[in-house]
Design brief:
Blueprint lengths: L8 E2 L11 E2 L27 H16 L1 H14 L4 E4 L8 H13 L4 E6 L2 H8 L8 E6 L14 E5 L3 H4 L7 E2 L18 E5 L2
Parallel strand pairs: 2-3, 3-4, 4-5, 5-6, 6-8, 7-8
Antiparallel strand pairs: 1-2
Helix pairs in contact: 1-2, 2-3
Length: about 200
């Protein structure tokens, strides 16, 4: 397999806008095995299927597997060179393993001027980490549910829900959940969600 020396950080995502860079990994490969969103996943269609996009995401994962510290040092270097105020982990993909989460925390501590956001269904990794540690204030990890697939959330992390417009699935959305605006760069609500708060997305 051809190897690349640098990770690919995405910018000018249609939803995130030009002011929020993101790092992406292959969907499914890095996601939990029993994730109910695998079928019809938005990260498995559209522009995510372009060969260049697929190659860049796999490249990111390959670099992480070869050298986790090199992968995250490049994220740190990027944000120290261009101090963006907001950063998004994984429009596609998810937290790979415990070391990945630990290095996300370390990166947030180094890049203190940036607010980081990560949606995840790797609940167990995060819950295990939080039994002994705290997250930096500038790293917001949000548990992502899917219909009745709702995580154990003993640390009351903020959550996201999906609106299917089907009553049997939408009943799980809390009444006080905020609707996603669809325009991150003018909103930043997810970066600022507090414990026990939630937001919902229309299925796309």
């Amino acid at each position: 397999m051809e190897q690349f020396k640098t990770i690919h950080i995405s910018i000018q995502n249609r939803k995130l806008g030009a002011s929020i860079p993101s790092i992406n990994l292959p969907a499914v490969t890095t996601c939990r095995a029993n994730a109910p969103c695998r079928k019809g996943c938005y990260a498995c269609k559209g522009t995510f299927l372009y060969s260049t996009v697929q190659k860049s995401m796999q490249n990111n994962l390959d670099i992480y597997k070869i050298s986790p510290k090199a992968y995250f040092s490049q994220i740190q270097g990027y944000l120290q060179m261009i101090p963006f105020k907001h950063f998004r982990y994984h429009s596609s993909g998810d937290i790979v393993d415990m070391q990945y989460l630990e290095l996300m925390v370390q990166t947030a501590k180094i890049c203190k001027e940036t607010k980081f956001l990560c949606f995840t269904k790797k609940y167990e990794i995060v819950n295990e980490y939080l039994t002994k540690h705290k997250l930096p204030k500038n790293l917001n990890i949000v548990f992502s549910s899917w219909g009745g697939f709702i995580p154990e959330n003993p640390h009351n992390l903020p959550m996201t829900y999906v609106k299917f417009n089907k009553s049997e699935l939408d009943k799980f959305i809390p009444q006080n959940a905020v609707e996603c605006s669809g325009h991150c760069e003018n909103c930043f609500a997810c970066w600022n969600l507090k414990k026990k708060q939630s937001i919902y997305f229309n299925k796309h």
